[in-house]
């Protein structure tokens, strides 16, 4: 078995580098056109928020009812 050193000029390496360049251009184009959902805000479920705030789900419901905690309803789920 003959060993061979591959260089940037070899067809296999040149093809791989070309594919990487194309993929990089596509990724750059996607990043340039990316618009974060909800202006980049991260919404939490009741369970996540209750854990972070260390309160009960009932307390979260009270906070929403009193207008203390903003929320949205999305596909039947309440997100804060």
How does this model look, in words?
This protein is mainly α. The protein has 2 domains: 1-34, no CATH class; 38-79, no CATH class. Helix content is 50%, strand content 8%. It contains 3 helices and 2 strands. It has helices at 11-33, 46-53, 57-65; strands at residues 72-74, 77-79. Strands 1-2 form a two-stranded antiparallel ribbon. A hairpin with a 2-residue loop joins strand 1 (72-74) and strand 2 (77-79). The longest helix has 23 residues, at 11-33. The radius of gyration is 25 Å and the shape is elongated. The N and C termini lie far apart (64 Å).
Per-chain topology:
Elements: H1 11-33, H2 46-53, H3 57-65, E1 72-74, E2 77-79
Antiparallel strand pairs: 1-2
Strand ordering within the main sheet: 1-2
**Quick one: how many beta strands?**
2
Q: C-alpha Rg, in Å?
A: 25 Å
- The averaged pLDDT comes out at 88
> How many separate domains?
2
Shape category: elongated
In percent, how much strand structure appears in the residues? 5-15%
> How many strands, which pairing sense, and closed or not: the largest β-sheet?
2 strands, antiparallel
**Spatial separation of the terminal alpha carbons:** 64 Å
Helix/strand structural class:
mainly alpha
Provide a count of the helices: 3
């Amino acid at each position: 078995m003959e060993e061979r050193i591959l260089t940037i000029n070899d067809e296999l390496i040149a093809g791989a580098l070309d594919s990487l360049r194309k993929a990089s251009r596509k990724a750059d184009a996607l990043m340039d056109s990316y618009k974060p959902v909800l202006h980049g805000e991260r919404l939490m479920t009741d369970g996540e928020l209750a854990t972070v705030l260390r309160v009960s789900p009932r307390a979260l419901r009270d906070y929403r009812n009193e207008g203390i905690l903003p929320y949205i309803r999305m596909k039947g789920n309440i997100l804060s």
